[in-house]
Amino acid sequence: MSNPIPYRIVEIIVNGFNVQSDENLDKNIEINVSTEFSYAVNIPAHRVRCISKYIYTQEEKEVLSCDLTCTFEVKEEAFNSFIKDDKLTLDVDWLRYMATIAVGAARGEIHARAEIEKSDLSEVILPPINLVEIIKESAIFPVVKPEEN
Q1: Regarding beta strands 83-84 and 61-74, do their DSSP bridges make them parallel or antiparallel, or are they unpaired?
Q2: Is the Cβ–Cβ distance between 58 and 31 less than 8 Å?
Q3: Residue 19, beta-bridge partner list
Q4: Is-contact 95 27, C-beta < 8 A?
Q5: CB 107 within 8 A of CB 125
Q6: Residue 96 phi/psi, 5° resolution?
Q7: Is the pLDDT of residue 94 over 50?
Q8: What's the distance, CA 79 to chain centroid?
């Protein structure tokens, strides 16, 4: 990003975490990881949410899942610069940047929670994720202006 966006992380929430018992795990079979990312905005609060999901599968059986939300508060002036013609546009590079932070948070959460569960999956570190392949375009949100009385 050529123009840094002033923000702060205001919350990291694990909305769901599930790990299967190690009885269902075969250490000799590869574990695949799939990810999903979506975004939401709260225009009056100048906030953007990066909602991410991480699923570990082995032979098409889900062995671990983690749903995580990172919320970013953007300085008002910068946030308002995203709005043009009743649309708020989040640039693809900014989306990837937020997702990078979410992936790092998820990596730690997954490891720690799997360790607490005493699961062998604590040894499987969330691998690097190519966000350029996953997040390919900017996100556009309609801006609904309050009706005047």
Answers
A1: unpaired
A2: yes
A3: 64
A4: no
A5: yes
A6: -65, -40
A7: yes
A8: 19
Give Cα separations from 4 to 22, 113, 144 (angstroms). Answer: 44, 33, 27
Integer Cα distance of 44 and 111 in angstroms: 35
Residues comprising the chain, all counted: 149
pLDDT tens-digit map of 99-140: 999 999 999 999 999 999 999 999 999 999 999 999 999 999
Residue type, 87: K
Cα(27)–Cα(123) distance, rounded to whole angstroms? 11
- HEC profile of the chain: CCCCCCEEEEEEEEEEEEECCHHHCCCCCCCEEEEEEEEEEECCCCEEEEEEEEEEEECCEEEEEEEEEEEEEECHHHHHCCEECCEEEECHHHHHHHHHHHHHHHHHHHHHHHHHCCCHHHHCCCCCCCHHHHCCCCEEEECCCCCCC
CB-based contacts of 140, cutoff 8 Å, min separation 6: 87, 88, 89, 90
